[in-house]
Amino acid sequence: MKVRILGSGTSSGVPRIGNDWGACDPGEPRNRRSRASILIESDTTRILVDTSPDMREQLLAANVDQVDAVIWTHDHADHAHGIDDLRQLMHAQGGPVRGIADAPTRRGLTERFRYVFAGGGPYRATATLEPLNDGMVIGNIAVRSVDQPHGGIVSAGLRFECDGKSVGYATDFSKFTESMWQLYAGVDLWVADALRRHPHPTHPHLAQTLQWATECQVGRTILVHMDNSMDYRELVAELPAGVEPGFDGMEVVL
Q1: CA dihedral 145, 174, 33, 196 (to 10 degrees)
Q2: Where are the domains of the chain?
Q3: What pLDDT was estimated at residue 200?
Q4: pLDDT at 66
Q5: What is the distance, to the nearest Å, from the Cα of residue 154 to the centroid of all Cα atoms in its chain?
Q6: Which of 47, 53, 145, 201 has the fewest CB atoms in 10 Å of its CB?
Q7: Tens digit of pLDDT for each residue in 81-113?
Q8: Residue 126: what pLDDT?
Q9: Segments of the chain scoring below 70 in pLDDT
């Protein structure tokens, strides 16, 4: 499998509007972060996770115009509101994009973006929408999932497996449950939320993510969903072996 970090930033991105870089060095290009999203690819299958508001630029940079499916982790704006750009994928691949999400996310998406899934007037539907089921298979990639507490809602935690390799994707969660531990334990690569160094009510902070990576005995950890307090070079200097900050456009082949 190949994993591409499309976006490594939090909901406001880095820099925030107003050129607010916070503690991040603006001279380090890996500090420029768009909203969180990843691509998972095998030799035959490509899965997009979330449709961030920056999806157009992310897919242009990745030279991608077709996917086999998109999975939404939840319906918050920074993970869903680039959904209109699925229209261009639909045109490129000649039919609606296969969309997958849990029940609360499907409700939220269809309430706000009914036209995407139902079409209207002369416009056909851009995407389909089906349930996210633990143990489903997309192409030759097996997908497992778990509900993750995320403040007052849940997000979908994901594990992808292909050819004996495994990738976990854990973003937007506020507690680490036994079911999450079972899902992520022993993955070859864990791409995980680490918003900042001090606590946050709906996201993990750095020390928590590092602790859970150790407890799950993952092979390698890449940090994402980082805000403007998380400077790339400072993180590289302080993180333990096997853990590194992600950045937009980063690719890992397993």
Answers
A1: -140
A2: 2-253
A3: 97
A4: 97
A5: 15
A6: 201
A7: 999 999 999 999 999 999 999 999 999 999 999
A8: 97
A9: none
Which of the listed CATH numbers 3.40.50.620, 3.60.15.10, 3.40.50.20, 3.40.50.1820 matches domain 2-253? 3.60.15.10
Among 119, 191, 126, 194, CA closest to 159: 191
Place of tokens 């690819």: 41
**Pairwise CA distance, residues 244 & 71, whole Å:** 25
Per-residue model confidence as pLDDT tens digits over 28-42: 999 999 999 999 999
Distances (CA, A) of 154 to 74, 129, 151, 171: 7, 18, 7, 11
Angle 180-183-186 from CA coordinates, rounded to 5°: 115
- Half-sphere exposure for 52 (CA within 13 Å, toward CB): 27
Separation between Cα atoms, residue 147 and residue 153, nearest integer Å: 9
Mean of the per-residue pLDDT values for the chain?
98
What residues are paired with 35 via a beta bridge?
A: 9
Per the document, the length of the chain is: 254
DSSP string for the chain: -EEEEEE-B-TT-BSBTTTB-TTS-TT-GGG-B-B-EEEEE-SS-EEEE---TTHHHHHHHHT----SEEE-S---HHHHTTGGGHHHHHHHHTSPBPEEE-HHHHHHHHHH-HHHHH-BTTBPPSB--EE--TTEEETTEEEEEEEEEETTEEEEEEEEEETTEEEEEE-S-S---HHHHHHHTT-SEEEEE---SS--SSS--HHHHHHHHHHHT-S-EEEESB-TT--HHHHHHHSPTTEEE--TT-EEE-
